[in-house]
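Case study 2.
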Amino acid sequence: MNSIFHRISVRKYEDRPVEKEKIMEILRTGMQAPSVCNQQPWEFYVVTDKEKIQKLSKVTPYTGCAAGAPVVIVPVYHTEGLAAPSFAQIDMAIAQQNIWLETDALGLGGVWFGIAPVEDRMEEVHKLLELPENVKVFSMFALGYPAETRPQQDRFVPERIHFIEE
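Prediction:
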């Protein structure tokens, strides 16, 4: 629960690599996410190549800060063999949230860049990373050791809660 109330979008990173063990632990939590019909549509591409990260940072007007990240995770989902394909992006969002919370729990910071459902962005990342044809890009997640800190804002608004009772 601590990460839920601590996690922020981190856009500046220290110039140091992230240990592979931490990356694997982060991805383990992503794969632990629930999914519709247990379809588990995910695969994850871990990009540490600085040149590729620079190119990824130019995919949208909002991804520029990825250029300074030592790691960019690109979650993708399968397009074939799924029990409920129309729910794959929901499954991916849950996995992405797990990834973000574990990133925070490990003392790292990250920022989630929405790529899906914008087809041209999905295709650009797909082409840039030369991904297999049977997957679609869901998002990008830049991460590293944070070079910035700030408190998370309190987003609780009781007026948005409505009880329907007898």
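The CA atoms of residues 89 and 153 lie 27 Å apart.
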